[in-house]
Design goal:
The structure is a homohexamer of 341-residue chains. Chain A has 341 residues and is α/β, with parallel strands linked by helices. Helix content of chain A is 33%, strand content 23%. In chain A, strands 1, 4, 9, 10, 11, 12, 13, 14 and 15 form a nine-stranded mixed sheet that branches. Chain A has a four-stranded mixed sheet with strand order 3-2-7-8. In chain A, strands 5-6 form a two-stranded parallel sheet. In chain A, a hairpin with an 8-residue loop joins strand 7 and strand 8. In chain A, helix 8 packs antiparallel against helix 9 and helix 9 packs across helix 10. Chain A starts with a strand and ends in a 10-residue tail after the last helix. Chains in contact: A-B, A-C, A-D, A-E, B-C, B-D, B-F, C-E, C-F, D-E, D-F, E-F.
Chain lengths: 341, 341, 341, 341, 341, 341
């Protein structure tokens, strides 16, 4: 039984260490993408993970595929064609200086995909779970339609569907997002969001919270989850709760709302010292999916998801290179980072 | 009196050393472009060099401008706007393995320029020379029209015009190139080409030469120059003569044909051991322009141009970081690379 | 209208990361200098910034000039001559281990400058502000005389003069500093100092503060400013207030005293996690000058200067690579370093 | 139909560039091994390639597996267990200084394998070819027995067997090699050797050749092949012919002897400028296997194998990262390394 | 008068920065080992420091010796022989992710040493102190016997003996450790331990402390020291007290118990921001030995040892590259890391 | 019995790879110096090698000493004092571009040495050989006097004296060199020179040779040696014969003239592909000294010296990191750089 993830895989060009973009004459080059990050994290957990996308022919597209095969992700359903691999420039923030992301992903092989590129019946053979995010429909109406097509097929086949809202202000406006995402939400069983997404996409604001000022009121997020459920009838709503102190130090926790008993389960809160925070939300999603497909209780799921994404903050690159055993150790309380030898 | 160069400035993402693309997780990132290379080389020679282009707002475009200012190139006429900086991936060849260039330059700020972006009257104030290349018209009809507009203005103002044919098979077909370039050639005083361009663009083939097999018949290039002159009435035709042995070792020379006496001047031939050959043709062009604006005799011009571009093969990156004194030393016969201390 | 800065530009040889000097076999090599840092920061803010200095002929001196041109600093008044570029070795501290600076700047091209090297009438054409620091007179009586000459010319031309006391115990004694600086202070309009300078140079000690123990009493610095003003009749006195916790963590704030209303304006205090703190004081000076030449109110000036120098702590190298927009974002309260995408 | 390769995968710790071992404080770390190299090269050619081995649990063993998955090699039959991954230190030679290999591979997970670790019936399902080398039996009698077992199973299933003699003087003596290899040769269809192996293992010396002095008499190798065939009844014998000039420059060619018509086919000879020559022999083997399973004529096979291994000399690391298309281009005569753009 | 240290010197292969093992294709390679670290730190303090060990012939063993000579450690008594240098892989932890050490040290030249390899009478000529650790007897009964032989010889010659318990769970079980160490303790004058060793080796647990949860009750360690003294009649017992907050932040202090007055001296506690914590305990031991051989009072000794090992946390690599002057500066209260220039 | 070498040890700041000075923002930093290179090479050969010099206090001077101790060079007679370590910038040439050395060594600790800094009676205890070069007297009259003092002491003690002429045009004029060196030559037993030194210092020109054009007439150097011997009564004259083809490719040989039989012994000539040629002459000197103190016949000495310095061209940095065994292998004819494994 496989988990199918659909989305764009991108080249990430990061200035080394804490240097500003182009301060030195090199970039750290890795592959990533909100959905590819989920696929890799699941593969690292030992899950049969299949990633579906479109990349150009030639060494850049092949490099993207190889970077997934490295972790054991199944890549046989990745289509080749189009002109270029989308990319973005990343500058890591420090102290009071925020991280910076500059997208250069328009006209990519993925963004130019068409409906006929993907045969969802074939793709979903043996699948038990389908995951996508709000980044994809933001890339254009063609991708939005492909997402809808995928959701319809998944629903027909009885496959559970999760979606991470992942609002990106550089890709679309809140009103465009709302219009597009509302239709997709009809098919979604598990809705994943960060502390800003619900407000940005659906206008559901957490009371007493000001994300830019580093103020998060956890209890108000229970209300956000309830309202999301009320509006779209999700089975589960999971929200990450990041309190930003500086670009180096954040607090991190997660919440999982179950529609069955209308209550929320909160994870521990971690004081994280950040190595690389990009992809943390995606690793949270992967942790959730791992918990669900292994039939964990809700509290155990949110603990696993929060711990796995806590660890992501200590990993270079977007991909969450941690094993189930490592996540379990943290859930079990070993959070002081002592050396084992 | 300034030399004005017009063209695209690109980000070059090169895999380090002799590694294949994406073999390791970093790229060497430098700025370049056939015309920018000429502008920088001239600035290194102490010439007032002004570069005209269009780059996006933000740190990537600014980095491109800064990389030119570093050498003292005048950048005040570079327009800002559009969506992205064009880029390409470069893999350096070795032995029997050829270098590889993968363009990702469509939809760039420069390629999307329009006629009204550039005020040529203003740009050409104080100018004595205008240089452009065949890469620009290959980027689209809008750029082709801008080139025409620039040429017309330059001609009116009595500015000498040089053009490097610079045929790029990844950008357009020979027939498209021919159609476009023929019109532009009407305005050109100094035509620069490599050992393949004349054939690719205008179908003028050098007899007894097979470039891919590493066979160059120098004398036949005299005929090529004559035919180019006969067809377009150029004042001067300069051709680089590269004999490829392997990706590491080439022979390199240059030829300059003068219409006045209908004869060709040949430079020495250099056995070059290649550090980085990209930009060698551009450094040849810069050497020529330097010679012309300093009123050197034709033999001295071709010697200077061939020596400066010979040295380029020993420099990392596209830009030819050599001084007039260094070129003169080589022209004067110090070609054995002894240490001076 | 340009801001003219005069001083030495140095080569900084820093051991990589947190390694000790010569622990590995490479140095990070960048250019810097208290006054060059100011010139670059102003250029990054879009100010017409002219740097005046003396560097040796050849690639090392040229490299220094190029590093300034990169940012758009005007370098046409930099004189060439002398034997060597001054340099220093830098080892970055961590935790309880302090940073270490080893000067090797004696006999430099700049330190051997003579009065006739600089034509201040020409240099100050179009200038509205002149900035220098206490490092220059510490390099020898010849430089001291050049500073005096520059100040006299500036005063005659009605140019505002700022001076950062910048006491360096490795260059001269407090008594020598006092003797020299007292004469120069007659010309200075804006006096800039850190939390130790006033005591070291003029014996004006802040009560209840022990800088080495990390104790700073802000209110006592108001008295320091007043006493500086009383003694030298400065129009403005600005002081940086650094509380050292460890080599990695400092608190940072600034104070600006105006003689008109005899009161001090304090900035926010920032808890900075240090990437590279060298040059922070210089970036504070540049922020002040930017505020003054843009006619900001005093509170806005000190907020801008403190924020811009807060950001400097997050930047590798001496130069403060931040834009006005980035400083404004921090002044406006975005201090939690969230990613924008 | 898959090609199965059996052998050890090792960690290669190479001093960077041309530095001597431990001259600087880092190693380039890649995975390799005579047989793994063949498996990767075949996967790069698009062949279904399955690698069989034994690696330790934990991140080092997993890293080895990941490095194979990256290229699409099937790793499901790699067994986990034992204490350590074998490794070797590599120092790249230059000019008259030879490369140096220091093995640290005793007691490895692979060397401690036992017969029951591998279920050859299962492994050979869908296989058409089995490849191993003389390195494996050199690691101990247990591995020798496993090789025998594999050969017997392959023979029973009608699978073609190739063996690269790959004599390693640091692992065993010629007499031990002879004793062990003679038994294994009974099962082998295609024997692969370099210019020294036949002499080292079976005492069959090429006349008029002195490998250490850089003298190779091609025609005498035809006799070597014949004698090998006469003694072991191989269907095909392939020999690589390396003429060493310096550590940087070698001549390289290959020969393929067919028992059917008792004649040898020689490839072109290439003057290679070496980037990394380790693994060249293995890439020759992979080229041969690719030719045989695609039913090429013998001349085409040896041309393909020689060209693919010629290209290997230009690739960093043991793995031959070249595509069929790239090999074909070289076979077709593009050997001058010109840039394509 | 020399200090003799006996133990294994190892190659440490660390993944760069905070990357996971094999995430990138290089290792930082340095030499280290609990006892070698002590020898180097003492040499940095200006002590005549002799290291005794066994390494293989060839460049890897020679590199280990060279790395000690670099600091002035006497290496004339290091024996050459055996097959390999022991090594380990190190992954530096961050935030909630712990550091990871993977040993590959079995069958090393040192582990295969025999009694006759070392002539202790000769080695101890001019010695005043002998130091070893619990790592050595954990490597096998042969090394255990060599330690015993060394202790007997040292005792006979009136040389003071110190031992760091250094329990390593990856090398032996608590019960094996107890059995072996109890015999060796008879000879030991100064026992050094970390906050876990006494419990792991001798079952002496500190009350109210949970090391994995980051809880340390200092006063209870006075009881641990007393009990150690009561059982083995040590003259002095020194214990390091590490409170782990995250992998980046620890509190660090030391305690020294003197049997003469049965009281404990505690050092300051330092909040350390970790650069590299491996070897901190060894640098504590070196600090102690330096204090003892310079006849410092006990409080001064523990202050010196705690400060020197506090600084170790800020140094890359195992070796504590700090001078006596730097340690004294910290002891004297300069702990805020201000730049001196 | 030790070999004593006297001279300056310098910091060498080399731009990485083939980049131009300051093209990127780092320098490779190593220690070197004509005489230190000899001392290290001898230590690598197992000779008791003592280096005498003067370096500043602090980490830079200590780093220089450590770099020598690493190889086992005795450093106890290195004096500490003065202000700075001399340094130079190095840019490696390629193809037709020559290497570039920019000295910054004036006012160094060594250059400011005085006679009383060195107690030659003490230094020469146990010495059998004294080596110095023409670089030292070029640094000033004080160093010239120290060299004279050292020579007189050595002569009195019956120690053999060798001197490498090592003319440096950036340090003094031919006439100054002649005046100074003529006096020193009275004491010298073994004179070492390169193909230019005899002409530059003593006006003895090799007929039919033009070093800058890459033309060397070996036989004429026999005459040079004879004339040197006639003028100064050297026991032996050794000359290196470098034919420069490009900065990458040189031919290299050596000649040793013995006064006893008035004949010259020539070594093989090597075609070297250069990794780093700086220090090649010094490694030749070290090879000679090794041969003499081991009482080799003259032909064997010159073969050893030429082979050891041939290998130097393949080693990064000034120091010749090769063993006697490696030199012997090359002398014995293994010059094709085959891998041994």
């Amino acid at each position: 039984m496989t988990v199918v993830t659909f989305g764009e895989i991108l080249l990430r060009l990061a200035s080394p260490g804490y240097t500003r973009l182009l301060q030195n004459s090199s970039f750290d080059a890795t592959f990533c993408g909100g959905e590819a990050n989920v696929a890799v994290s699941l593969a690292e957990f030992g899950v049969e993970s299949k990633f579906v996308s479109r990349v150009p022919n030639g060494p850049i597209g092949q490099g993207a595929i190889n970077s997934l095969r490295y972790f054991g992700v199944q890549t046989s359903e990745i289509v080749r064609g189009g002109d270029r691999l989308g990319l973005f420039y990343l500058e890591k923030g420090a102290s009071q200086r925020p991280s910076k992301v500059i997208y250069d992903r328009a006209y990519s092989s993925f963004a130019n995909s068409v409906l006929s590129d993907f045969d969802w019946k074939e793709i979903f053979k043996d699948a038990e779970w389908f995951h996508f995010t709000g980044i994809s429909p933001a890339l254009g109406v063609n991708i939005n339609d492909i997402c809808l097509e995928a959701c319809k097929n998944a629903k027909e086949l009885g496959i559970t569907i999760s979606c991470d809202l992942n609002y990106r202000s550089n890709l679309w406006s809140p009103s465009d997002a709302k219009k597009s995402m509302e239709k997709l939400m009809e098919y979604v069983d598990v809705c994943i969001a960060n502390e800003e997404d619900a407000e940005n996409v659906f206008g559901i604001k957490a009371a007493d919270s000001d994300v830019n000022m580093g103020e998060i009121n956890n209890s108000s997020y229970l209300e956000v989850a309830k309202e999301l459920h009320d509006r779209f009838n999700f089975k589960y709503v999971a929200i990450t709760l990041r309190t930003s102190i500086t670009a180096n130090d954040n607090n991190w926790a997660g919440m999982l709302f179950g529609s069955a008993d209308q209550t929320s389960n909160f994870s521990n809160s971690y004081n994280v010292h950040i190595v690389d925070r990009v992809g943390a939300g995606d690793s949270f999603g992967a942790g959730l999916i791992y918990g669900f497909i292994n039939d964990m209780p809700l509290q155990e799921i949110i603990d696993f998801a929060a711990a796995s994404s806590c660890l992501k903050h200590s990993i270079e690159g977007d991909f969450n290179r941690v094993t189930v055993e490592e996540v379990r150790n943290l859930v079990n309380g070993n959070r002081t980072g002592r050396v084992s030898r």
